[in-house]
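#struct-help
A.M.: can someone run this one for me? Single chain, 92 residues.
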Amino acid sequence: MQQIATERQNAEQELASKKQAEAQAEADAVKNQAQKLAATEKQALEQQQNSWGNKLKALVGTTISAAGGAFFGGIGAQAGQMAANALFQQLP
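D.P.: on it. Structure tokens below:
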């Protein structure tokens, strides 16, 4: 009887260890996936901010060039028009 009880206890411990290892592996996989998703979202947000920031900088530059064109004549107007063309070619 003692041997059967010992074998049963060993089998239960082995099964419990396997289940615990599976649960730990699944938890690690979920954690890794969440970290990858967070990193991807962070990168996408940074790209979006950079993109809009660059467009706003170009828009301000275009506005200044156009205003300069109004005050300084045809050369300034041509520079403003070229800047505006460059801005709208960059837009997706």
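A.M.: thanks! The first helix runs from residue 2 to 72.
D.P.: also worth noting: Residues 10 and 16 are 10 Å apart (CA to CA).
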